[in-house]
Amino acid sequence: MVDFPKSLSPKRVLKLLKAEKNPHAAFALLDSVTRHPKYNHSPDVFHHILRRLVDPKLVAHVDRVVELVRTQKCKCPEDVALTVIKAYTKNSLPDKAMAVFQQMEEIFGCAPGVRSYNSLLNAFIESNQQDRAEKFFAYFETVGLEPNLQTYNVLIKISCKKKHFEKAKGLLNWMWEKGLEPDVFSYGALINGLAKGGNLSDALDVFDEKLERGVVGNVDGAKRVYKEMVEKRVSPDVVVHNAMLNRLCIAGKTKELWEVMEKCGCRNVVSYNTLIRGLFENEKVDEVISVWGLMCEKACIADATTYGVLVHGLCKNGYLNKALQILKEAENARADLDAFAYSSMINGLCREGILDEAARLVGKMDKCGYELSSHVCNALIYGYIRASKLEDAILFFRECAPRQEDWHGPQHVASSSLNMWHQALDKGFEPDVTMHNIVIHGLCSAGNAEDALQLYFQMGRWNCIPYLVTYNTLMEGFYKIRDCEKASEV
After folding, report:
1. Residue 370 and residue 308: Cα distance in Å, rounded?
2. Which of 9, 19, 44, 256 could form a disulfide with 472 if both were Cys (CB 3.0 to 4.6 A apart)?
3. Which are the contacts of 159, defined by CB distance < 8 A and separation ≥ 6?
4. Average pLDDT over residues 362-371
5. Taking all residues of the chain, what is their mean pLDDT, rounded to a whole number?
6. Would residue 217 be called left, alpha or beta, if left means φ above 0 and alpha means ψ between -120 and 50 degrees?
7. Model confidence over 285-324: pLDDT tens digits?
8. Can you tell me the distance from the alpha carbon of 113 to that of 104, in angstroms, rounded to the nearest whole number?
């Protein structure tokens, strides 16, 4: 547990929270800081932690944070309350959203504005409570609040959910007449509603109107045009299919991605690559594995891009064994592999502490003539440091630096680390900010925060600008040796 200095500011706490990537650990840190004497959180601290609790696995903690805001009587802007309402909306908790809305002044010290009304209106829509949403909209008039564009967009969604498409069209026309110009969301809601209801002709008409009025940027109209081509038996070629897949991929429409692929009789490796990328971006990893199996069944030969996207995506989503299996199969088959696939695999292995395999792949890259980038070297060095294999880190660091003389294992890791650093500099090695951070981390881990601080002071010599990781590493280094005063000065 971190020992906090006697004087603790919300700004410093916010800095620590942002540096903590694990949301559970961040919330635990917030709990610890809350018990610190003579300290109260700021609105920015509450806003940051609430944004990280939107996930379904964490949303249960939102109640505790809201109660803490109330207890500390922290006056917050509307944005903080909005984050709470949106968290409840995303997790289908409209009653809790309503309760927060009704008590905004009491809890947050701010009155609900039009954005809060819109957010609660949307909460009812997302939980399929259209009648309740309409009744709430009627409440707008009683408080003298002027609806804005987002309000009418939600009303269009209500009409489409109830299949009242003429009413939705009427709202669009009324908005144009009143000078409240509809946007892509206004038209997108109506086009989607019509298409899902089977009214493709009407959907295309609305899409045409959208283009005529100069409202651009929505992919749904393109989907309707694509379907019209298919229905009229105008056969789109592979270029059209791939363009369509790319648009759907960007828009996150995974269901439609599959539909287009199923209709496509001329799929090529680019089509599969686009589909795999889109599925990864929407965290559909199991579906990616199915697509990979389908490629093999259809005898579609994967290229370097396929392997790069596959390995990177699998590692990023925690499917390390599957990524390694695919990479080894590709190596055995002498398939088309590039540096991206190897570097992604090495990064993944280093994050999980599987350093022997990572080192093997680094050697493989070197043997195959791939350039060992600073990202690859930094990943392995940082992996060694995290595993407390500092001598291995120094040895590999030496191999990365342009030196020729032999070097023997250090008696004292921290001093040897600095010696290797200076030897590398003498030989012309130009370190970047990441390499500085790695050595600073190693020195701090060995309890040598003072030397780490000296290295930090020299970063400007190499035009390296310290950032949050640098400062947090130094702070933790001084906290580790119980020098809280110096930690607070960093």
Report:
1. 14
2. 19
3. 165, 167, 168, 171, 193
4. 85
5. 80
6. left
7. 888 888 898 888 878 888 888 999 999 999 999 999 999 9
8. 10
CB 202 within 8 A of CB 194: yes
Q: Over the stretch 165-201, which tens digit does the pLDDT of each residue have?
A: 998 898 898 888 888 888 878 887 887 777 667 665 6
Q: Classify residue 39 by its DSSP letter.
A: -
Chain region(s) in the chain for CATH 1.25.40.10? 1-147
Residue 142, burial from CB neighbour count under 10 angstroms (0-12, 13-18, 19+)? exposed
Q: Most confidently modeled of 98-102, 258-262, 462-466?
A: 98-102
What is the pLDDT averaged over residues 406-422?
A: 50
118 vs 151: CA distance, rounded Å: 6
Question: d(Cα 291, Cα 33) in Å, to the nearest integer?
Answer: 47
Contact 156, 171 (CB under 8 A): yes
- Report the alpha-carbon distance of residue 96 to residue 84 in Å, rounded: 9
Report d(CA 415, CA 9) in Å as an integer.
Answer: 35
- 233: CB partners within 8 A, 6+ apart: none
For residue 324 the two structure tokens come to: 């390694």
Which amino acid belongs to residue 187?
Y
Contacts of 111 (CB under 8 A, 6+ apart): 104, 105
The full DSSP string for 192-221 is: HHHHHTT-HHHHHHHHHHHHHTT----SHH
Residues 6+ apart with CB under 8 A from 117: 136, 140, 145, 151
CB count in 10 Å sphere of residue 92: 13
Q: Which of 65, 5, 67 is nearest to 39 (CA)?
A: 5
SS (H, E, C) 325-361: HHHHHHHHCCCCCCHHHHHHHHHHHHHCCCHHHHHHH
Residue 96 pLDDT exceeds 80: yes
CATH architecture of 1-147: Alpha Horseshoe (1.25)
- What is the predicted pLDDT for the residue at 400? 65
